[in-house]
Input
Amino acid sequence: MTVHATSADGPVNWERFTAQRTQQMRSSAIRELLKITQLPDVISFAGGLPAPELFPVREIEEACSYLLRHEPKAALQYSTTEGHPPLREFLAESMAKYGIQHGPDNILITTGSQQALDLIGKVFIDAGAGVLTGRPTYLGAIQAWRAYQAEFVTIPLDDDGMQVDQLEDIIARTPVRFIYVLPNFHNPAGTTLPEDRRRHLVEVARKHDMLIVEDDPYGALRYEGEDIIPIAALAPERTIYLGTFSKTLTPGLRIGWAVAPMEIRQRLVQAKQGADLHSSTFDQMIANDIAQRGILKAHVRQLRDVYGERRNTMLDALVEFWPDGCHWTRPQGGLFLWAQTPESCTTIDLLQAALARKVAYVPGVNFYPHEDGGHCAMRLNFSNARPDMIVEGIRRLGLTLKEVL
Ligand SMILES: Cc1ncc(COP(=O)(O)O)c(C=O)c1O
Output
């Protein structure tokens, strides 16, 4: 039975009891859309879902059996907020290969990197505080920080990501507490910030004494080109770097991490204590087992091959099936590309026609904190569907576009 806020005397005015900050909270359009796209015959480019057929199920089963047989008391017990020490050691070592020189004590294990975004909001955002994001930016960050009544200040992206040459002008108009940046294979734009832009961003952050939040769930999933130095390696004193196992292992484990200077990490630990005490001990130990046995490394290699091929399939299908006047990014990695339609077509309206043909995407406007852009853009995910489905879905979208245009 579903219970609503009504009684024999009529509806209960529950809104009267809610905190003021909830007025800006909305349901995530993507989470809502995912409900439709989970219908079996819809080809969905909407979610950010990894390919489920590649999950290392047997290896995770082995890890579970091993842990329950050999370490059940630790695996099923409460543990520290900071996170499982061997996992933090593993993470410190693997990030050092990218130039991030923080030790295990600078790391906080979180319940997905989404939780880290929320904790950052809890620690750094007073009502009305300025937060600088790209236009577009990750929807989950908008959602997390709206709840803390952030004032979003935005900076446009081009094919190389954030146009950091505009940073100083923008922050001169509205001061911000931190800059939120997605340097590798941006969600949703698919762009990668070149090294000179990263260095310029750090220079400005230092000059104006701002923090940087570097969100990097996709960095390991590169299909072409060379790794670029992380911002956390360029400005370790003022960067909070976020990572996650969601895209490289499985999102269902809900294990991510934040790396930050000690004082900031301590604040995040305090915020997490009030949120969930600690992330699942069992899940952390599973992730650690998979990582320490070298399975993660091999799995990421496989993901790079499979997703790289799916990206190519989508790019080729776009060329073949979409009408003139459409454009798209060519991501060097990650899970998404960003496609633009001609101005005569809005992607919110187009979605109804697309769903009628049983194909889905996320309309671009959802990724704009002020909903002031992206009307003729959409985010397309290429990791989840198999290549033949990618071709078919892009063909159906092409037909829909041709009809509407
Ligand atoms: C940019 C970005 N940040 C954070 C997340 C959250 O990931 P999770 O909470 O699963 O680690 C995602 C997920 O898609 C993302 O794309």
